[in-house]
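In the design runs reported in the main text, the only information available to the sequence generator was the tokenized backbone. The following block is the verbatim input for one such run; it is reproduced so that readers can re-run the procedure and compare outputs position by position.
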């Protein structure tokens, strides 16, 4: 199975080091913007930080995956599972899963928010949602949409389901692979309110990956899920007033 792909330890170490360096660089660039451009409006600074973090993290994952796959003699077609005879059926399964996943995750978000209030903690939106709230120009929203619907799902599924999950699993720790990578996936989004929903989301993506043995399946489901949330964000005022 693809989820049992024997990635080489030295390649994993190099990839992990490069990803960590990219994360540190994006943080440094964000701090640099505040220092060099102190008079920049907050909403523009937030948007530039979003672009920097998105390109520096998600974008670099895609760039780094190229030599990673080449090192293992694997093509993108094989990696994503498009070389399988039934890949179209697997993509259809992913699309079907994305439909009920949206209301389910919204319900989990509401539950998580209520739990935080019970703990006297104020629930807050993810930083990306805050950026979208102040991004009023069409090109800003287009950039956000491209990152949220295209770039992030592909990069995150490659890193968490395509690489990290098989690495831990091939060490003989399948349960740790499921729980550990899901916890890391939720934690990396740095938001208490979405931690539980994202943890459950990761579990479902792992199930989909295992069920289809096609990485393209969770990528498609993730992209459609983000697209639905992106659309709902803009139509929420109309839905509330209806």
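Verbatim output:
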């Amino acid at each position: 199975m693809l989820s049992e792909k024997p990635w080489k330890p030295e390649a994993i170490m190099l990839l992990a080091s490069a990803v960590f360096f990219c994360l540190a660089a994006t943080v440094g660039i964000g701090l640099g913007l505040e220092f060099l451009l102190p008079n920049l409006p907050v909403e523009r600074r937030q948007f530039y930080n979003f672009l920097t973090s998105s390109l520096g993290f998600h974008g670099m994952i895609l760039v780094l995956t190229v030599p990673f796959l080449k090192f293992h003699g694997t093509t993108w077609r094989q990696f994503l599972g498009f070389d399988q005879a039934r890949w179209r059926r697997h993509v259809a399964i992913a699309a079907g899963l994305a439909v009920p996943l949206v209301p389910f995750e919204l319900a989990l978000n509401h539950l998580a928010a209520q739990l935080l209030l019970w703990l006297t903690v104020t629930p807050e939106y993810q930083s990306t949602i805050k950026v979208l709230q102040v991004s009023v120009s069409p090109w800003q929203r287009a950039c956000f949409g491209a990152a949220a619907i295209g770039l992030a799902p592909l990069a995150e599924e490659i890193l968490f389901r395509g690489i990290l999950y098989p690495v831990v699993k091939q060490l003989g720790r399948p349960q740790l692979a499921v729980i550990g990578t899901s916890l890391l996936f939720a934690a990396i989004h740095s938001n208490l309110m979405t931690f539980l929903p994202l943890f459950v989301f990761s579990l479902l993506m792992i199930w989909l990956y295992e069920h289809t043995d096609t990485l393209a399946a969770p990528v498609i489901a993730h992209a459609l899920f983000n697209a639905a949330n992106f659309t709902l964000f803009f139509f929420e005022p109309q839905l509330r007033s209806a």
